[in-house]
Amino acid sequence: MVNAIDPDQLSTCLRVLSEVDKLPPEHPDAVAVRLATAKMFKALKKARRTARRDAIAAADRAVIAATATGAPGRIDDETQGLPLVSTAVGASAGTLLRSRACYICK
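Above: the chain's sequence. Below: its structure in token form.
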């Protein structure tokens, strides 16, 4: 992975991009540059989408873990006569960012 681009190479790249804008849309050089830049934008969009999805999933996992039925260390307490207890303070453990049906509604 490259940490930085050589300033001379960057200026050359920007100069070429400004020249490509002056070419006809179907010129082979314009098409090649368009395909190369599209690949970069697609990779960036995918990385942003993945980061956004991971953040939502982490927030939802935290809400579920705070509930009595979704706690990670939960055992089948009812069979041992122990009541289910939530670690959340208050009446609600939180709000899911990505809504989903409850275990009854599935």
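The mean pLDDT is 86.
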